[in-house]
Amino acid sequence: MSNRRGSQKGGSGEIVRVRLPKRRNREIFARADLMLGANHIRVRCEDGVTRTGRIKGKIKKRLWIREGDLLIVVPWSFQDEKCDIVYRYVRAQVDWLKRRNLLNQ
C-alpha cells in the first residue's frame, strides 16, 4: 500500500503546495548550469549573477541535482560569487510555477 494520496506510479498528481524563496532569508531562484564535482555546481541566479553553488550536507544524499534543474539558493553574505543550494524543484513544481508566472526565466 502506498502513502501517496490520489497518485499512481507514472501518473501526474496535482501540486498542492510549492516552496517559494523566502526573500527575508535572501533566497533566490537559480538554474543549475554545470556540475563541477566535489558537491559544487555552477548556477545562474535570477539576479543575473553566475555563482558556484555548494550542495548542503542535508540534501547531499537525498536529492540528485542535474544540469538544468531549478533550485533555490542563498548567496553568501561575505563572498557574493558563492552560494548554498537549499532546495530542488521537481518537474511538476516547475510547471506549476510557470503557469502562475512566478518564474521570470
Outline:
By secondary structure, the chain is mostly beta strands. The chain has helices at residues 57-60, 91-99, and strands at 28-37, 40-45, 50-55, 70-75, 82-88. It has one domain: OB fold (Dihydrolipoamide Acetyltransferase, E2P) (Beta Barrel), CATH 2.40.50.
* Structural domain tally: 1
CATH class: Mainly Beta
Largest sheet: 5 strands, mixed, barrel
Biggest sheet strand line-up? 1-2-3-5-4
**Fraction of residues in helix:** 10-25%
- Gross morphology is globular
Strand content: 25-35%
| Secondary structure tally, helices | 2
- Averaged pLDDT, please? 84
InterPro entries: NA-bd_OB-fold, RNA-binding_domain_S1_IF1, TIF_eIF-1A, TIF_eIF-1A_CS
Pfam families: eIF-1a
Keywords: Initiation factor, Protein biosynthesis
Protein name: Translation initiation factor 1A
Walkthrough of the structure:
This protein is mainly beta and 105 residues long. It has one domain: Nucleic acid-binding proteins (OB fold (Dihydrolipoamide Acetyltransferase, E2P)), CATH 2.40.50.140. The protein contains 2 helices and 5 strands, in the order βββαββα. It has helices at 57-60, 91-99, and strands at residues 28-37, 40-45, 50-55, 70-75, 82-88. A 5-stranded mixed barrel has the order 1-2-3-5-4. Strand 4 and strand 5 form a beta hairpin. The protein is globular, with a radius of gyration of 15 Å. It starts with 27 loop residues before the first strand and ends in a 6-residue tail after the last helix. Residues 7-11 have low confidence and may be disordered.
